[in-house]
């Protein structure tokens, strides 16, 4: 059992929960090196949600677009293998190509590099009915063999929930931290707590919480309507000591721009600034730690 007893699957060799008194084997190395010579990814940030359909892919797309707008070199790895929605949101249909050096990702209009299983399938409505071990193998291959070139930030659109695929990503990708996405119902807030607790147990920093669909702004009266109930995000962020908090409105333009493949055009009007600041702080901390290790 773990300290809390909540995340134990008895698989000591594959479990990443730190501080477990029952561990008999150390987990696999936390970071696999990238094999392709054409990749230099500086920082990896996961975007997670305890529950499906709350807007995790949307938040991944908005964070990546905003970082790109600020001049960073950005990539997205669509790790939601069974429900990949990133290519559609950015209007990418060109299949990825491969050469002897590795897989070449597709590029969005503003220059974000994207790798997704949907960019390898002959048709984008072809289902992916693979079990966990196959999916985790593919994700590792995407990480190790994609020619990302130089990237400042790689965002991972993680699968929803806390499945075995989620656990593998938390263990085997060199994450600087995660951003978690929730919606304003109590149920969602409770499930966010599970993902956050798991991240804490695995020693992955939780950098920010984005409460999506927090309110709807009416054209007629310009008033904010809390149609899904009272916002929970601020309370959840305080409770789990998450340093940054942001809200996004329920906005039909999101769905429209995603459908049109033009999500890069959405202006978040500074709503994600606090979260982005924490991402940049985590990046600086990781760089300082790396420099220290190299000096030692
Ligand atoms: N704030 C919002 N306003 C309007 N539509 C939204 C909003 N957030 C998300 N949507 C729409 O809801 C749908 C689901 O969003 P999204 O794919 O980002 O969720 P998800 O959490 O990644 O889902 P899954 O867990 O299934 O991967 C999309 O069509 C998206 O355009």
From TrEMBL:
Residues 1-37 are annotated as: Disordered. GO terms for biological process: iron-sulfur cluster assembly. The keyword Iron applies. Residues 1-22 have a biased composition (Low complexity). Gene3D superfamilies: P-loop containing nucleotide triphosphate hydrolases. GO terms for molecular function: 4 iron, 4 sulfur cluster binding; ATP binding; ATP hydrolysis activity; ATP-dependent FeS chaperone activity; metal ion binding. Keywords: ATP-binding, Hydrolase, Iron, Iron-sulfur, Metal-binding, Nucleotide-binding. InterPro entries: Mrp/NBP35_ATP-bd, NUBPL-like, P-loop_NTPase, YlxH/NBP35. ATP binds at residues 50-57. It holds the Pfam family ParA. Homodimer. Binds and transfers iron-sulfur (Fe-S) clusters to target apoproteins. Can hydrolyze ATP. Belongs to the Mrp/NBP35 ATP-binding proteins family. This is Iron-sulfur cluster carrier protein. It comes from Berryella wangjianweii.
């Amino acid at each position: 059992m773990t300290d809390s007893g909540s995340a134990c699957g008895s698989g000591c060799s594959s479990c990443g929960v730190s501080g477990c008194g029952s561990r008999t084997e150390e987990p696999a190395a936390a970071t696999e090196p990238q094999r392709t010579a054409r990749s230099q990814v500086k920082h990896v940030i996961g975007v997670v949600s305890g529950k499906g359909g709350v807007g995790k892919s949307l938040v991944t797309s908005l964070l990546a677009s905003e970082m790109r707008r600020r001049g960073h070199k950005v990539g997205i790895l669509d790790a939601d293998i069974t429900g990949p929605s990133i290519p559609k949101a950015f209007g990418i249909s060109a299949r990825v190509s491969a050469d002897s050096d590795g897989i070449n990702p597709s590029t969005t209009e503003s220059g974000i590099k994207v790798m997704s299983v949907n960019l390898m399938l002959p048709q984008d409505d072809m289902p992916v009915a693979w079990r966990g071990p196959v999916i985790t193998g593919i994700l590792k291959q995407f990480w190790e063999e994609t020619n990302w070139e130089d990237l400042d930030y790689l965002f991972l659109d993680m699968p929803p929930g806390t499945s075995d695929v989620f656990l593998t990503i938390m263990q085997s990708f060199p994450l600087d931290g995660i951003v978690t996405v929730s919606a304003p119902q109590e149920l969602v807030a409770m499930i966010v707590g599970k993902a956050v607790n798991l991240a804490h147990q695995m020693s992955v920093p939780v950098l920010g919480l984005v409460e999506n669909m927090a309110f709807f702004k009416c054209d007629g009266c310009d008033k904010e309507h809390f149609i899904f109930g009272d916002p929970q995000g601020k309370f959840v962020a305080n409770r789990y000591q998450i340093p940054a908090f942001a809200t996004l409105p329920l906005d039909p333009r999101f769905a429209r721009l995603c459908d049109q493949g033009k999500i890069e055009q959405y202006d978040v009007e500074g709503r994600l600034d606090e979260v982005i600041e924490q991402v940049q702080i985590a990046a600086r901390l990781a760089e300082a730690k790396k420099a220290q290790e190299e000096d030692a």
